[in-house]
Write a structure and sequence with these properties.
The complex is a heterotrimer of chains A (about 300), B (about 325) and C (about 270). Chain A has about 300 residues and is mostly helical. Chain A has 13 helices and no strands. Chain B has a domain of about 210 residues: Rossmann fold (3-Layer(aba) Sandwich). The chains are: A mainly alpha (about 300), B alpha/beta (about 325), C alpha/beta (about 270).
Chain lengths: ~300, ~325, ~270
């Protein structure tokens, strides 16, 4: 910890208002998603607590029937939007982080193997990556999502929707990790500390995981952050298109889809607030990722 | 009568970092006479390359020349932009691969440099380029070849031709032979020396190799931790080094014969201090076997224009 | 029989384009003969130096002697055991590996920047099962650090906290951790400054005396060789052109190539 506080990295962080603000926004959002149960005034998914009479209450105004008022208004079913956004944020972040985790583990492993072992295995993995790169990742995700739903029995579809979502986004985003890790692995494996490890008879896996992996993780961190923004948007897009999170467990994307039905009838807040939240989240994750990339890139220093 | 070409007066190059301001070159004063080869020798981080870069104006932020004056032919030059200095001074770098553009023929690069600095027609420039190549021992017909078609030693010859093409008054050669094999190194050094002698061009030769220095330069400047430790005629400095650091450097350089086998090499204990952890007084005092109280408290001045060492003052 | 024997050592590198490109462009394979029938032998406890310029094949030979590269032809035997013996069991291989270690050229790339020095030194002990128990390993690491002139508190630091010369000492300590009998030194001082080079060379010499080590010294620098080696082999483009004991080589070099190398090495003398 002492080492971290004295590092150039931390120093650069304290000198960049952009990085501090974007990280602050991300941290606040993550915290409010994690503690949604405690922060949210109502539980938006408890049908018993919903009052249809509260439907379409504009933000900060008293409802004309019940006299209740809501910070960000309510949707058609009288659900408090603020609470719905907190819970939606939780779903969006959960899916995003898990998907990035999956993509990262997969990509890093494949990249390490391709870079270190080389030969036909390298060709196979990298051609696979090339092919996948020719399709937009959202298309890949939809494809995987469709196939998975086709394979699942109907009664499990709702239940497994989130898992399938994670899988489909995770599998569509591994390529960047693999490419970067392969590149740095090929540089690292020529270094003499790897030769020294070979001299004492370590096997490939030991060398890859214990020696090379810690040295290629720097750029992975950057890609993970930028991919997180992509994954959150991908999740929102899928949910918006109706192939993502179900209505019973709405993510930000689902809320936006619900909201756009009411945009032209004047209930603008149902769309606007979830959309703003998504924007703020994706933007600050992205800005922080960009800052990380610029700071950790030795060539720009 | 020797004429002074370049004079550095109290040159200081500093780098601003978050841990404070580091002096890469600290109060350096020296002169380069017309037609002479001055060698600057020192270990990595001693500030020798930084000195060269400061003279030609190639120091990038966060570094800057923060103090001192650079006089070139009786004119202040440190305020001149880099382009202006480029007409009078040219540079030979360590790695010939990076100092030549791999995508253009050597002829194009020579012609371009000549046209940029001299009032000649394109045809004349081309003729000059061919003459230049011939002078460094490269077949002038290879003027249309690309840099990768040459070996490392040949490439460094091209770089020398490039450096001399504009008839500069001063050539700064920064470790020009470090990347080359020994057999090629000798040829390149001889060539550089011969051409500069013929034209009366002065050379600042920057190197870490005492042997290269001994065989090439007229005078030697020894730098340590950004400061000038000793300066003088090559023969005098090598035969009778005054500064304990120079003495140590000489003694720890193994010689090419079988005499030294089996015996221990002389070694200077420790390593050069980092610039952010310089000791008070003489920068060399923690490694010096003859250091006394004064060396640890106050920085020694240059004594009789030769060495910055209290021992020398005590002796006189 | 000598301790290390290289017999008719050859190594070719395949520099050809991929098969499909070669077929399309109708170009033949391009092979580079990096090492061509090289023979030498090293007596136990002595230093043998291979001297050559870039492209002479000296590093290729070093890599073959430690087993990082396989010879295309020929053999290397260490204490009578053939290094390329395919029938050797894995424990036997490990036993042989332990006896041969290497000190590398670059003080920067040869230590894993993410590992603490202590961990770097303990790894060979674990891999060869030399010392069991982390407490005993720590003690041994501290002892090694002191042997190479560092202090035991350095074990908890990272490589970037050390200077080039100190890192080379750590690299030597790591080689010693395996308790080897042969150490291949691949240009161990060419990245170091002169005053530090002398320290490292002296250290290598005193360790040789203390542990009876056998050195194969790879270098381009004749001056370094003259202080270190008992016997010198001169390599030129993969061929061993001359071999003599140190005194003989410098006083009566036989081959023109050797003479050229000696005469072009920069010397500190005052009559130029």
């Amino acid at each position: 910890m002492q080492r971290f506080l004295q590092s150039d990295f931390f120093y650069a962080f304290t000198r960049s208002p952009l990085a501090m603000v974007s990280l602050l926004v991300v941290v606040l959002m993550v915290l409010s998603a994690v503690f949604a149960n405690f922060i949210a005034p109502t539980n938006p998914f408890d049908p018993a607590s919903l009052n249809l009479m509260n439907g379409f209450t504009p933000p900060m105004e008293a409802n004309m029937f019940t006299g209740e008022s809501f910070l960000l208004g309510t949707d058609d079913q009288g659900r408090d939007l603020f609470s719905a956004i907190l819970f939606g944020l939780r779903v969006s972040l959960f899916v995003g982080i898990m998907a990035v985790g999956l993509a990262m583990v997969l990509g890093v492993l494949l990249g390490l193997i391709a870079g270190y072992v080389g030969g036909w295995l390298d060709t196979l993995i990298m051609r696979l990556a090339d092919i996948q790169m020719t399709f937009p990742s959202i298309l890949i995700a939809m494809l995987i999502f469709g196939v998975a739903r086709g394979l699942l029995p109907p009664e499990l579809r709702e239940e497994m929707a989130i898992t399938v979502l994670i899988l489909s986004i995770g599998l569509s985003e591994w390529v960047n990790f693999a490419r970067t890790v392969r590149g740095s692995t090929m540089v690292e494996k020529e270094k003499e500390y790897v030769a020294a490890a070979r001299l004492i008879g370590l096997n490939r896996w030991q060398i890859m995981l214990r020696h090379i992996l810690p040295n290629v993780l720097g750029p992975v961190l950057v890609i993970a952050t930028i991919t997180l923004a992509l994954a959150i948007i991908a999740e929102a897009t899928l949910s918006f298109l109706g192939v993502g999170a179900p209505r019973t467990e709405p993510s930000l994307g689902t809320l936006i889809r619900i909201g756009q039905d009411f945009l032209f009838s004047g209930e603008w807040w149902i769309l606007l607030f979830p959309a703003l939240t998504l924007l703020a989240l994706a933007l600050s994750v992205n800005l922080f990722g960009d800052w990380l990339r610029d700071t950790l890139n030795p060539r720009l220093r | 009568m020797t004429e002074t070409l370049l004079e550095l007066k109290g040159l200081e190059v500093t780098f601003k970092t978050r841990r404070g301001v580091l002096k890469a070159v600290d109060d350096l004063s020296l002169t380069v006479n017309k037609g002479e080869i001055l060698g600057i020798v020192g270990e990595s981080g001693a500030g020798k390359s930084m000195t060269g870069a400061a003279i030609i104006g190639l120091i990038d932020p966060p570094g800057r020349v923060s103090k001192g004056e650079i006089w070139f032919e009786q004119e202040r030059m440190d305020e001149h932009p880099q382009q202006l200095r480029g007409k009078q001074i040219s540079m030979v770098f360590q790695d010939p691969l990076t100092s030549l553009n791999p995508l253009r023929t050597v002829g194009d690069q020579l012609v371009e440099t000549i046209l940029a600095h001299m009032y000649v027609t394109k045809a004349q420039a081309r003729q000059r380029a061919q003459d230049g190549l011939a002078e460094v021992g490269i077949d002038p017909d290879r003027i249309n070849a690309y840099p990768h078609a040459f070996s490392g030693g040949m490439r460094q010859r091209v770089v020398i031709a490039l450096a001399l093409a504009t008839e500069p008054k001063l050539v700064i050669a920064d470790e020009p032979t470090t990347a080359l094999d020994v057999s090629v190194q000798a040829q390149v050094l001889d060539l550089l020396k011969k051409l500069c002698r013929e034209r009366g061009t002065s050379v600042i030769l920057i190197t870490h190799d005492m042997g290269v220095m001994a065989q090439t330069s007229d005078r030697i400047a020894v730098m340590y931790a950004g400061r000038l430790a000793e300066i003088g005629d090559t023969r005098e400095v090598l035969s009778n080094p005054q500064h304990p650091y120079t003495q140590g450097l000489m003694a720890s350089t193994p010689s090419v014969d079988a005499k030294s086998f089996g015996s221990e090499l002389f070694q200077i204990p420790g390593a050069m201090p980092k610039l952010d952890a310089l000791p008070p007084g003489c920068a060399f005092n923690p490694r010096c076997s003859q250091a006394h109280e004064r060396c640890r408290t106050s920085r020694p001045p240059m004594v009789s224009g030769r060495a910055a060492c209290w021992l020398m003052e005590d002796a006189s | 029989m000598s301790f290390v024997v290289a017999k008719d050592l050859c190594r070719t590198f395949d520099l050809s384009d991929p098969w499909i490109v070669r077929k399309l462009t109708m170009r033949p394979k391009r092979l580079l003969q990096a090492v061509d029938r090289v023979n030498f032998s090293i007596e136990r406890g002595t230093t043998y130096a291979l001297v050559g310029e870039s492209g002479s094949g000296k590093s290729t030979i070093a890599n073959m002697v430690v087993g990082l590269l396989k010879p295309s032809a020929g053999s290397i035997t260490i204490d009578g055991q053939n290094l390329g013996d395919a029938s050797m069991s894995r424990p036997d291989q490990q036993r042989l590996r332990r006896r041969i270690q290497m000190v590398f050229q670059s003080p920067y790339a040869s230590l894993n920047p993410r590992w603490k020095v202590g961990d770097i030194l303990c790894e060979p002990m674990r891999a060869f099962k030399l010392i069991e128990g982390s407490e005993a390993q720590r003690r041994r690491a501290a002892e090694l650090l002191e042997q190479v002139g560092l202090s035991d508190s350095d074990a908890s630091k990272y490589p970037h906290e050390f200077s080039g010369g100190q890192r080379q000492r750590i690299s030597i300590a790591r080689a010693l951790a395996s308790q080897p009998e042969v150490i291949i030194c691949d240009e161990p001082t060419s990245a170091l400054d002169v005053s530090v080079q002398a320290q490292v060379l002296n250290l290598l010499k005193s360790l040789q005396k203390e542990f009876g080590l056998t050195y194969l010294f790879i270098t381009h620098d004749l001056a370094v060789v003259s202080t270190m080696a008992n016997k010198i082999g001169v390599l030129n483009q993969g061929v061993l052109v001359e071999e003599q004991d140190t005194e003989g080589l410098f006083s009566t070099p036989r081959e023109d190539y050797t003479k050229m190398l000696i005469s072009s090495a920069p010397k500190i003398e005052f009559g130029s």
